[in-house]
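Dear colleague,

Thank you for sharing your sequence with our group. We've completed the structure prediction you requested, and as agreed, I am returning the results in plain text so they can be pasted directly into your records. Please verify that the sequence below matches your submission; if there's any discrepancy, let me know and we will rerun it promptly.
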Amino acid sequence: MERRIIGLKELEAIDGKRSEAVVRAVAKTSPILADAITEFTYGDIFSRAELGRRERELITVALLAAMGGAETQLRVHLSAALRCGAEYDELIALCEHLAPYAGFPRALNALSELRAILEELGNKRPSPARPFRMCDHETLLSDTGKGDPILLLHALGLDWRVWRDVIPALAKSHRVIAYDLRAHGHAAAAPRPITLERLAQDLLHLMEALKIRKAQIVGFSFGGCVAQKFALAHPERVTSLALVATTAKPQESFTQRASAAEHHGMQAQVIPTLTRWFTPEMLAENPWYVRYARERVTRSIVADWADSWRAMAAIDTFESLSQLRMSTRVIAAELDISTPLSAMREMADCIPHSHFSLIHGAPHMLTLAKPTETAAAILSHRT
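Please find the predicted structure tokens below.
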């Protein structure tokens, strides 16, 4: 009896309220199989805590997809994986991972089932990123929507996906472009040197290649430093500017973070980085964006990480902010310990045509933790 109760509890956790109806339907024909599902599969196997529910569902999806011929069960467990905390990006990556091991037909069949579920859920996603050739390296670029262009520049150590959940709201009325900055993501190990000026030149090259004469530039953290450099050097290319949780002054900690990675490696940077970026509650919950940030930091090349921090340490734009004449939105996060509220207000006060926004309850990684509010702040004042 205990195993049955435990099994039904686990089954409901992954399959929702319909789980009892499924068991009853099976029991009408085969009580033995119904008991095997509840008592053995879920009461004995799924209930064990050595693997979390999300991990078990990802494994189950991979096995069913690789087997083939189990599309009904695959569809159930794809939905269960989403219910247990797996993200559609993870499931797409799982389908892609199947191809070299189980073959393209199995991978494509699994992707088809996943796509059908996402369409049923009304899941809105940015356009998939595609390789894009810059002047001396390759990057990934996501180009979503139509209208006046918005160019998004991401934070240090991450990639274009830091904007993943911000893009759909912006793309309702704009063409939204996000890409991996030099030394980040797909553009890792790009040619040196890594400087803010060179990253600003990369942005200019991108706009030229995409035939974009003027755009709204949105820079987040490290990307905000690049955005300032670009706006000061090429004001005629900027319709408006948004500076999100960023800085215009160097800090000694920037060079210390570079040296720490060089001396202790990237794994040692995970704890100090994530505790700066997220609240303790977010770290405890471990949602997709915390997992994403952890993986990106862990997988960073030490030289890329160190050179990017030293580039940020060379930021020198504070005294020049008064030269900015375009409409500028300065967006701060209430719980940000990396770029605190006082520093963001100081920046806004120096910019003649600035408008200040505060995202309540947000840590430094506000684009990940508060994407809806971040998108609203970016769109709240436009020329």
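Summary note from our side: The two ends are 67 Å apart (CA to CA).

Kind regards,
the structure core
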